[in-house]
Amino acid sequence: MKKILISSFDLEVGGVERSLISLLANFDYEKYIVDLKLFSHSGEFMELIPAEPNLLVEQREYKTFRMSIKQIFQSGMLRIGISRVWAKILASRFKNEEAGYRQMQYMWNASLPFLPKLNQHYDVAVSYLWPHYFVAEKVFAKTKIAWIHTDYSVVQTDENLDYALWSKFDHIIAVSEHCKDAFLSKYPLLKNKVSVMENIATPELVISLADEKTESSFVEDNRFKLVTVARLSYAKGIDQAVLAMKILKEKGYPIVWYVVGYGGDEEEIKCLIKQNNLEKEFILLGKKINPYPYIKHADLYVQPSRYEGKALTVSEAQILSKPVLITNYPTAGSQVKNRVDGYICPLGAEGIANGIEYLYESEDLRAKLVLGCKKINYLNNEEMQKFYQLIQ
C-alpha cells in the first residue's frame, strides 16, 4: 500500500478546510495509508476528521505560523520570532491590500533553517494550502503535490520565490479551469505540472446538515434575506457588501443581509456597519461550524468576493437549490452559468446592489435559477480518480 502525507495549517472553519475534510472523507483507505499533518490541532472541524487517517503530533515550531510575533517570543522560539519580524519589515515595502501574501512567503523562507524535517518517508506528499514550504523543503517523498485554491493572477507575491517553490513539486492541482488559467498567466513555465481537480462535493451531507435547527430570530425574520458565508477579509469583499446594503436601504428595500464567518477584518467591518447605521440590516453571525441552515433559509445567496479560486459555499448553496448571485471576479465563469444556475453582477458596491435589486424585483429569474440548480448533479466523486491517477 502506498503511504500518503497530506498537510495543512489547521481546521478552523473555512472553505479550504471544508474541502480538505471532503477529500479525507472520500479517500480509499483500503488502498492507501494516509498521514495527516496539521501545524496546529485547532479548529471546529477537528471533530470531522475521519477515523482512518493517522493524525501526526504537533511540532511547536510549525504551530508558530498561527501565532502572533509576541506569542512566538513568549514561547522562547527567538530565532523564528526574529524571522517573523524580518519578514514583516520586508513585506512593509509593498503598499497594497494583499501584502500579507508576501509577508507569509518571507516568513516561511526566513524560518526554514529553524524548522525540523519530518523524519518519515512517503510515496506521495500533498501540500493542501499555500505557502507549500513544509512539503517542498521538510518532507521526504517520491512524488510531491501542491494545491491551488485561489486566483493567483490577482495575488501579489514574490515571483522569484514562488517559482523556486513551485518547481519542487511534481504536480500542481487547481480547483477549476479558470483557477488553472489564472495561475499559468503568472507562471507559464509551470504549464506541464498543472491539472484540474474540483473540490469534492458531498450533497447528501450538505442537505442533511441544512435541516438542523438554527436561531428562531433568523428564521422568523420576514425580510428578504441575503446570506453570505465567508471569511471577513479583503478577498471576500464583505466591506463592499456593507456599502451595497447602504444603497439598498436608501432605496427602501425590505432587505436584511446575514454574514456567517469570521476573520481579520471583523473590527473594520463592524465600524463600517456602524458608520452607515446598518446595525439592523447587516448582521454578522460570527463563526458557525454548520452554515447550511442559514443558506437553506436564505432568499438569495450572495458571494461579493473580489477574487476566488472556486468558492465552495457557492456550490453548496446551489446544492440547496438557492438562487445565487456572485460578483464578476476573474474565475466567476467556472462557478456559475450566468442566468442559468446563478447570476453574475459587476464588481464593487454599486454592481452588487444593482444585482441584488434586479433579482429582488425578478421573481421569475430567481425561480429559473432554482430550477437550474435542481437540474445539476453535484455529486462529483469521479474527481478523486484524477487524484489517484496522479499518484500511481
UniProtKB/TrEMBL annotation:
Residues 213-369 form the Glycosyl transferase family domain. Gene3D superfamilies: Glycogen Phosphorylase B (3.40.50.2000). Keywords: Transferase. One of its GO terms (molecular function) is glycosyltransferase activity. Pfam families: Glycos_transf_1. This is Glycosyltransferase. The keyword Transferase applies. It comes from the Bacteria.
